[in-house]
Specification:
Blueprint lengths: L1 H12 L13 H14 L5 H24 L6 H18 L3 H27 L2 E4 L7 H12 L10 H14 L12 H4 L10 H13 L6 H11 L3 E5 L5 E4 L12 E6 L8 E7 L3 H16 L1
Parallel strand pairs: 2-4
Antiparallel strand pairs: 1-5, 2-3, 4-5
Helix pairs in contact: 1-2, 1-3, 2-3, 2-4, 3-4, 6-7, 7-9, 7-10
GO biological process, one term: protein deubiquitination
Organism: Collybia nuda
Pfam families: OTU
């Protein structure tokens, strides 16, 4: 794909298409090429991006040379060339070498994270079940797990039910959560001087968890672990590989563990949670999970 666009652009930029030659391709054809190059800049393939940027720079330089050779004569052709040159320059500037390096670094980090999570899931006999990245992902992932465990019926296993449960549990146990939530005076009615969220602010916070698509995190995971009396294990890239949330002290039932994955880099929208479904019946891998988990946490 990149090669065909490059060949197409070279034909347009060759000496036979200079200002002393037959008319250049019409503006529609050049606009199509520019749109193709712009689309290729979004590619995760560094080679494709690099070739597209080089072509855009060639377009810019050739147009500038042609416009210089025409002097001040502003024909329709030269005005079109000037417009294309400015467009090429603008696009190329937004993809500077530093920005490309940053993009390549982010892509590598996402690939490393995906590999780490995939390797651990393979060892634990789990498979990633993709959850829609709509702001409700944590609650949808836990709902999916609760349905697998038979804790919620299929009609109940949705983010609305789980959000309501998290909100209600937090409202019923304010002292367990308020000290760990940041105070935002204008948004949450918090006490800015003390740095502690007010009860009014906490009520608003819990209402947002219940009624909106605000993202959930550690406080909500803890609340749901306690509300449903299930351990929640969060698999992630890096260290530690598994973050364990237990509802209480003491031994846990391996057959009642909620397992979700946490992705920092994999999704463009930011942090994301997926559900981790077993590759087979729960009884087939519970002992394997216990062995690997003990090793990873030790």
């Amino acid at each position: 794909m990149a090669g065909s666009k490059k060949n197409k652009s070279k034909k347009m930029l060759s000496p036979s298409n200079s200002i002393h030659s037959p008319p250049i391709p019409d503006s529609h054809a050049q606009d199509e090429l520019m749109d193709d190059l712009l689309a290729q800049l979004d590619s995760r393939d560094g080679t494709v991006q690099s070739e597209s940027i080089n072509i855009l720079n060639e377009i810019q330089l050739n147009k500038q040379v042609e416009i210089t050779e025409t002097g001040k004569k502003q024909s329709a052709k030269s005005r079109f060339q000037a417009r294309q040159a400015r467009k090429a320059a603008s696009i190329a500037q937004t993809h500077s070498p530093d920005e490309r390096k940053d993009e390549e670094r982010l892509v590598k980090e996402a690939e490393d994270e995906e590999r780490d999570i995939g390797r651990l899931c393979h060892d634990l006999l789990l498979q990633v079940h993709e959850i829609n990245p709509d702001g409700h992902c944590l609650f949808s992932a836990i709902a999916d797990q609760l349905a697998i465990l038979g804790i919620l019926s299929p009609p109940q296993a949705n983010y609305t039910t789980v959000r309501q449960t998290a909100s209600q549990y937090m409202l019923s146990h304010p002292n367990d959560f308020i000290p760990f939530l940041p105070a935002f005076e204008e948004d949450m009615g918090g006490d800015a001087e003390g740095g502690i969220m007010s009860l009014e602010g906490f009520d608003r916070y819990c209402a947002s968890i219940r009624d909106t698509a605000v993202w959930g995190g550690e406080p909500e995971i803890l609340a749901l672990s306690r509300a449903y009396d299930v351990p929640i294990h969060v698999i992630q890239g890096g260290r530690p590989p598994v973050v364990v949330h237990n509802p209480r002290d003491g031994p846990v039932d391996e057959g009642r563990i909620v397992r979700i994955s946490y992705h920092r880099k994999m999704y463009g929208l930011g942090e994301h949670y997926n559900s981790l479904r077993p590759q087979g019946p729960l009884s087939h891998f519970s002992k394997r999970v216990q062995t690997i988990l003990s090793s990873s946490l030790g």
